[in-house]
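Record 1 of the preview.
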Amino acid sequence: MTMLTNSDLLELWERGSGLHPLDRALLALAWALPGEPWEALAGWPLGRRNGALAALHQTCFGGALSGWIACPQCGERLEFSFDAGMPIEERNEGAERPTLNGRSFRPLTSRDLAAIAAESDERAAARKLLRLCSGEESEFTDEELDAYSDLLAETDPLAETLLDFACAACDHRWREPLDIAEWLWAEIEARARRLLHDVHTLAGAYSWTEREILSLSDTRRAIYLEMVHG
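->
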């Protein structure tokens, strides 16, 4: 996993700002893994993709994810922090595919999610995913949809990460999915905007170029900013 410099983060953010979230995730991976072709990354199982995105987050921003969420029952604000470290899964292409009612399924990929991105009906989207992953055009029952969800959790556990929450105010308990790709991009955007603000401030104070300012270490840049504001 390549460590992204401040210049890298700014350019990555600029290039990805107008892309779909799925493409942003692949762009970030392509930047951090320059030896991997885009088409290969798009074909990675979601668990492997999510593990690599979590590793990139840890490399650039640390492993801890902190934030807050509102209780869906009483609206109480809950602050949380957790370690988003995930193993990067290397899938054996020769591994036996999981089966359901005689049909075999490959893991979900970013391409599959892109294929249902415009689908507004959740059950219709799930049925389309099953057809894509099985290679069959047959219909799937609601029972098969639920069974496949359990099967996916067993065979590709990092494809979806659910967080458990408990509200101290009303004792409501619920689960929320973690979108590591969305979280990573939020961090990239926040860092990029802070860097642009730093460049604006220091360029105005010292007439330095953007390249010169971005080449400073975070510690030295922070000290210069303190002196400007002080």
